[in-house]
Amino acid sequence: MGLIDGLLGFGAPSLRVGQEAPDFTLPDRDGKMVRLSEFRGRKAVVLYFYPKDNTPGCTKESCAFRDSYQDFLDAGAEVIGVSGDDRSSHERFATKYNLPFVLLSDRGGQVRAKYGVPATLGLLPGRVTFVIDRDGIVRHTFNSQFQPTQHIAEAITALRHLDRPAAQS
């Protein structure tokens, strides 16, 4: 990765495919505490980190997740969005755009740091999606600050490959 890619936030997150996803507990828009490990053994999780509620790219991304939400449910996955916005911002954002999935508030950026989500220009929180299987293992990552809707296609493709049997030699 070159210097420009690093500055633009195109670097790979420090959490890699094959590693266990770090557990965390964060508040949702209603103040309910959501723990990642609650999904373990039950559902895959599509965990997407986005910079900020109500910005053009984040709105496109979140609405694309909304429009494909049934596809995620059909694939046995839950969608969870995480940003540094507070609960009231998430509530307004989710209501305005009819977002059916969980939005979590990572006010201090601790979870973003645990997942090693790179920042753009060292300032703007990065946009990274992690596909986590039912066992809590990261199976796919996608990082693109400038292609917000591509996160959805990448995640659906990765989910479709989770339950396929391994090729025999």
Write up what this structure looks like.
It is a single chain. This protein is an alpha/beta fold and 169 residues long. Helices cover 31% and strands 20% of the residues. Strands 5-4-3-6-7 form a five-stranded mixed β-sheet. It has a two-stranded antiparallel ribbon with strand order 1-2. Strand 1 and strand 2 form a beta hairpin. It is globular. The N and C termini lie far apart (34 Å).
Q: Give the termini separation.
A: 34 Å
The string of secondary-structure elements, in order, is HEEEHHEHEHEEH
- What is the number of strand segments? 7
- Give the helix proportion (percent range): 25-40%
Summarize the structure.
This protein is α/β, with parallel strands linked by helices and 169 residues long. The protein is built from 6 helices and 7 strands.
Any key phrases for this structure?
169 residues, alpha/beta, 5-stranded mixed β-sheet, two-stranded antiparallel ribbon, 6 helices, globular, disordered N terminus, disordered C terminus
Secondary structure blueprint with pairings:
Blueprint: H1 3-7, E1 25-27, E2 33-35, E3 44-49, H2 56-67, H3 69-74, E4 77-83, H4 87-97, E5 102-105, H5 110-114, E6 128-132, E7 138-143, H6 150-162
Parallel strand pairs: 3-4, 4-5
Antiparallel strand pairs: 1-2, 3-6, 6-7
